[in-house]
Write a structure and sequence with these properties.
Blueprint: H1 9-22, H2 32-35, H3 51-63, H4 69-77, H5 85-90, H6 105-108, H7 119-125, H8 127-130, H9 145-148, H10 159-167, H11 172-182, E1 193-201, E2 205-212, E3 217-224, H12 231-245, E4 255-259, E5 267-272, E6 276-277, H13 278-282, H14 291-310, E7 313-314, E8 323-325, E9 331-333, E10 340-341, H15 363-366, H16 375-390, H17 400-411, H18 416-422, H19 440-443, H20 449-458, H21 469-473, H22 496-521, H23 540-543, H24 551-566, H25 598-609, H26 623-626, H27 632-637, H28 640-644, H29 648-657, H30 688-722
Antiparallel strand pairs: 1-2, 2-3, 3-5, 4-5, 6-8, 7-10, 8-9
The structure holds adenosine-5'-triphosphate.
Residues 199-200, 202-205, 207, 220, 222, 253, 271-274, 277, 321-322, 324, 334-335, 337, 497, 589, 591 line the site of adenosine-5'-triphosphate.
Pfam families: Pkinase
Protein name: Protein kinase domain-containing protein
Keywords: ATP-binding, Kinase, Nucleotide-binding, Serine/threonine-protein kinase, Transferase
Amino acid sequence: MGCVSSKQRPFRRKSTLASEKRSSRFDSSRRVDEWIQPQVVFDRSSSKRDAKDSKLIESEMLSSNRFCDHQVEKILENPQLAVHDQELRKVPCPVVKPGIEPKLDRWNSIDSKVRLIEFEKLSSKRLSDHHQIDKEPEAQAVVPQELRKNLSVAAAPKDTELKQVVSAGWPTWLVSVAGEALVDWAPRRASTFEKLEKIGQGTYSSVYRARDLTHDKIVALKKVRFDLNDIESVKFMAREIIVMRRLDHPNVLKLEGLITAPVSSSLYLVFDYMDHDLVGLSSLPGVKFTEPQVKCYMRQLLSGLEHCHSRGVLHRDIKGSNLLIDGNGVLKIADFGLATFFDPKARTVALTSHVVTLWYRPPELLLGASHYGVGVDLWSTGCILGELYAGKPILPGKTEVEQLHKIFKLCGSPTESYWRKHNLPSSAGFRTAIPYRRKLSEMYKDFPESVLLLLETLLSIDPDHRSSASSALQSEYFKTKPLACDPSCLPKYPPSKEIDAKLRDEEKRQRPEKQERQDSQGRRSHERKAIPPIRANHSLSMSMDKPYLDLKSRNESFKTFKEERTSHVPVPEYPNMQTRNNQSGERVSYSGPLMSNRNVAKSTMYVKENAPPPRYPPSRVNPRVLSGSVSSKALLDQPVTNQRRRDRRAYTRADTMDSRHMTIPIDPSWYNPSDSKIYTSGPLLEQPSRVDQMLEEHDRQLQEFSRQEQKAREDKTDKCEQS
Ligand SMILES: Nc1ncnc2c1ncn2[C@@H]1O[C@H](COP(=O)(O)OP(=O)(O)OP(=O)(O)O)[C@@H](O)[C@H]1O
């Protein structure tokens, strides 16, 4: 391994010095770089660096651990800055005055629950204790003993490993929350990357395309937003890292590294760069998926899931936009921000039911289950399979109640034995005298037999009947012709994320000129010009080849879809979500379905209201979102990212508002709110007054609906009598 230059020696000496000092109590006023110094080792043989690069790296080793977050950002934009330490020092830093070393004051001064852990405490008490900062039951979920032997990283590092982690230069706050994931790893330095353009915007992250200068390849850098003062945000960030470090499979996005520095509180996750996601790909103009292609994607999805489940990981947010596809057609499951560990044998640890994007959320979670397993990911997979063949989302509910209603209408009401077996918290309000009959095969009679068979299994109401990813891979679906093709045989598509980013850049470049022109044309109009959509507005129904569907049935299925939608109380029109740009001209992340027509987009806005809890919630709350009088129009006017950037309080509120947005009439004989104490899932119901409010509102809506129906009936009778 590495060659150590003479310039590194002082580090070694300092490092020894530092370890001596560690035996004394940690003094926060002491310079951080005196306390912990990174032991940097480079593998020069494997890199293609020239002399200039070596200088860059050496210089970076000397100085990067003193960079503040702002300077780290600057290095990522221009790695050459790191060569000239003095130059970098000239970069104005809003946080740190030149010459003054940043300290971890913020981390030190925060809530006692999450204090900076002193080294000796850390090694004697062990990291696992410190993970108890998590109060949510799900976060205490541990890796089952029998699974640990399969894991490359032990659940809690040994003392020796801990020492290595700390001396590798990881910031202490990260060691305290994700130490086990950092064993045998060293942080990557910002100056070994060159940030190119922004390619994605998640709710709690920004994703950039970047060049890895060390390995000379293109990567994706996901900058995660979290706040060291906010334990929840740190916890979610840490869990994503811990989970991803335990996974290693061609169909699971691999966490290649982390960019951070001992004194930095910003963090970048390094991933292989992926050209597409399934939603983006399906909406590329002219793209038509063939059946072997769909099977190829489904096989890869199930293989990735099989791996996650075998390692005790539930993804809990399987949807098209989290399935990334590279230039060679390889699909990888991404975004483990909501993932958790589970014990397949003993389901003793309670998990939150408030996970999975609404349209892909299984009935047991909607009914508030807190003990569940692989079935949740399999249900979402079934929804994706159905969507790929139907060309539209198969269960596009707008509220949790409506979602459950749609599920029962399609998949049948749960049986008495289901209710008895699962004993779910919110079951009371949803048990009906006249149950819905299962209509899946009737509804999708045009699907090939083997597709229907798999769909029937994956969309079983009882999660125990959904079987497993492994058995789905063994199903007739993958044995029936046309067989799944190899990813390498798939058509090559232009890298859609890059195209999007280029279009955005172009748009940004042109905007000031346009703005100037507009301004010079007169300041009469205060209207903000709509930014043209980046992607064409194609739905999957148009983009998938369906040789098994004749024209008649295509029209019929379209008619059913139209009827389904028009039977709903009208929803106001608003711009398409997927192609919608935020005010800065960036394409916002799309968490909805695999199709993107206007009607579907409408639903998605509501889905956003139901989106899973924030992973890295910001500390600020958008007062507009919090306002009780906020109209749906007001919500719709906001860029999606803003909508979802809420802290837990705001999120709880938004979900409570869910019932107010309920524009779809629910059959009162099916759902009886007076019978139900709870209809949303657990964590939303912290404040009983809100629940009362919500139920009152629900009652009011139902009464209003009955009144309207009654009136319509009377009008009809009157008309009949007159004629
Ligand atoms: N390795 C990658 N290569 C290319 N694009 C990526 C990569 N990882 C993530 N992205 C894109 O970046 C965006 C946000 O990523 P991600 O979903 O991981 O963030 P998030 O904050 O968890 O988002 P969400 O709000 O959807 O849950 C998505 O559009 C995704 O397609």
